[in-house]
Amino acid sequence: MYETTYHRPGSVAEAASLFSSTGDAAYFSGGHTLLPTMKARLAAPANLIDLRNIPDLKGIQASGDSVTIGAATTHAEVAASNDVAGAIAPLAALAGSIGDPAVRHVGTMGGSVANNDPAADYPAAVLALAGTVHTNKREIAADDYFTGLFSTALEEGEIVTKVAFKVPETSGYAKFRNPASRYPMAGVFVAKHKDGSVRVAVTGAGNDGVFRWNAAEEALSGNFSADALKGLSVDASGIMSDIHGSAPYRAHLVGVMAGRAVANLGTLTMD
């Protein structure tokens, strides 16, 4: 077993200071990606900085136009929040569908967004709901935040502190889960915003992680119904292919999930 030092800072400033002063360090907030990676010897940070217990990173605030969730808020807390459910019901349902109860009571929204796993649920919500990622240094619009597979606009040592989601006129989320891992092989979050704009975000399927499906957005802008998506398909050349499903299969799933998300607005639909 290699040696690592565990740190439990009490503030964002202390966490950032530890990161810059200790050298080889990594943040974690739930650890569902980092810790298995360490067990597999694919990562070996000398210092682990736990962000879960920092008070300023916790909590949920809702206003008429936005729902803001602290980065250290667990999936279970988001799922149980009346504020989230009342403003953006599919977002609360999404949180309640992640993993199992053990995962939901430890994993955090900020950890998921910071890691940008291609099979994570939250990135689709952040992108479709025109979210703003707040860090200890700046604010980053969702369209500028996700930059590729496990890649974001975060700089070295930067900490996600909260995410603000725009409250849409209506929205829906549908996903097809891998029967073994329960991760989405294709998940589609659809949101019609109060200004009339439509955003459609796809997770679990893209070679470069979460992405917006522009053709679906254009179709739904003219006719916001599942019928508008009939005949549309995602280019399979940009879709993931692995032992769980070929690119054409996942591309087909994207279309099916998008249709179900629109047909069942205000809810989460799962297979």
What's the architecture of the largest domain in CATH terms? 2-Layer Sandwich
Over the alpha carbons, how many angstroms does the gyration radius reach? 18 Å
Indicate the CATH class of the largest domain: Alpha Beta
Number of strands: 15
CATH topology of the largest domain: Uridine Diphospho-n-acetylenolpyruvylglucosamine Reductase, domain 3
What oligomeric arrangement do these chains adopt? single chain
- SSE succession: EHEHEEEHHHHHHEEHEEEEEEEHHE
Taking the alpha carbons of the first and last residues, their distance comes to 40 Å
User: What integer is the average pLDDT?
Assistant: 94
Helix proportion range? 25-40%
Strand line-up across the major sheet: 4-5-10-6-7
Largest β sheet strand count, sense and barrel closure: 5 strands, antiparallel
Domain module count: 3
Low-confidence stretches: none
- Which band does the percent of strand residues land in? 15-25%
Give the overall silhouette.
globular
Count of alpha/pi helices = 11
- Category from helices, strands and their pairing: alpha+beta
Tell me what the structure shows:
This protein is of the alpha+beta class and 271 residues long. The chain has three domains: 5-50, Uridine Diphospho-n-acetylenolpyruvylglucosamine Reductase, domain 2, CATH 3.30.43; 55-166, Uridine Diphospho-n-acetylenolpyruvylglucosamine Reductase, domain 3; 170-270, Enolase-like, domain 1, CATH 3.30.390.50. The chain has eleven helices and 15 strands. It has a five-stranded antiparallel beta sheet. A five-stranded mixed beta sheet has the order 14-13-12-11-15, with helices on both faces. A three-stranded parallel beta sheet has the order 1-3-2, with helices on one face. A hairpin with a 3-residue loop joins strand 6 (132-135) and strand 7. 45% of the residues are buried. The mean pLDDT is 94.
